[in-house]
Amino acid sequence: MTPNDATATTAAPAPVTSADGREPILRARRLVKTYGRVVGLDGASLELYPGEVLAVIGDNGAGKSTLIKCLTGAEIPDEGEIWLEGRPVHFKRPQDARAAGIETVYQGLAVSPALDIASNLFLGREVRRKGVLGSVFRMVDQKGMRQRARDELNALGISTLQDVTVAVENLSGGQRQAVAVARAAAFGSKVVVLDEPTAALGVRESNQVLELIMSLRDRGIPVILISHNMPHVFEVADRIHVQRLGKRAATITPQSHSMTDAVAIMTGASAG
């Protein structure tokens, strides 16, 4: 089954539009995921609209990671539906989500330190040279990949990575994060998911990553941001999905609620 395969009997969900009339590009409805007696998701729902940054916050054990894994093919929900651009999708592995245009940058980054920047951007998607050299001898187009890598970094405004031939092991933590985000932006045609992208980074490098997130939004790429860092969430998020006890407790905005309000909803002190 391909990522966009749908069963003929699946009924379309009721329309959920934003204030300006947009429909979600990605929607999850009543997702359930259990691990034996442990409930990871208990009817969780989520909507991501075009051109927005949606932050997902919640206490440890709230189901944030499980929700994201279901949306990106790392886990298969026991119940519920996922819709991408108005069509039901059934991701059975991360490759299915990537093929559908959903790219994920996990906290571990998954970069190869020994390879250079350009090779990391095209890791697993290497471009072969044209003609016999590519089809028969399977030679990669190193020059073409390096040029596209430069173009992608420039489009995101990443000025600290001018030499794409530098090995990733020689980069700082923030620069490595930039490489991972650039890779997601290059191939995430519909959605980019960022899992704790500023964790373990200093103030300056964290600010650079936040600028990258806003650059993605400016390019029209919707972003799901999972973070424990409330100041960062309130700086870049358009909407904030609050996860609690395996389901959505509330969806708020930085304009409608304060950080204190968000924490109260997370802990159950407030219903939102």
UniProtKB/TrEMBL annotation:
Residues 1-20 are annotated as: Disordered. Signal peptide: none annotated. SUPFAM superfamilies: P-loop containing nucleoside triphosphate hydrolases. Keywords: ATP-binding, Nucleotide-binding. The keyword Coiled coil does not apply. The keyword tRNA processing does not apply. Residues 26-270 form the ABC transporter domain. Residues 1-19 have a biased composition (Low complexity). GO terms for molecular function: ATP binding. PANTHER family: CARBOHYDRATE TRANSPORT ATP-BINDING PROTEIN MG119-RELATED, SUGAR ABC TRANSPORTER ATP-BINDING PROTEIN. This is ATP-binding cassette domain-containing protein. It comes from Agromyces indicus.
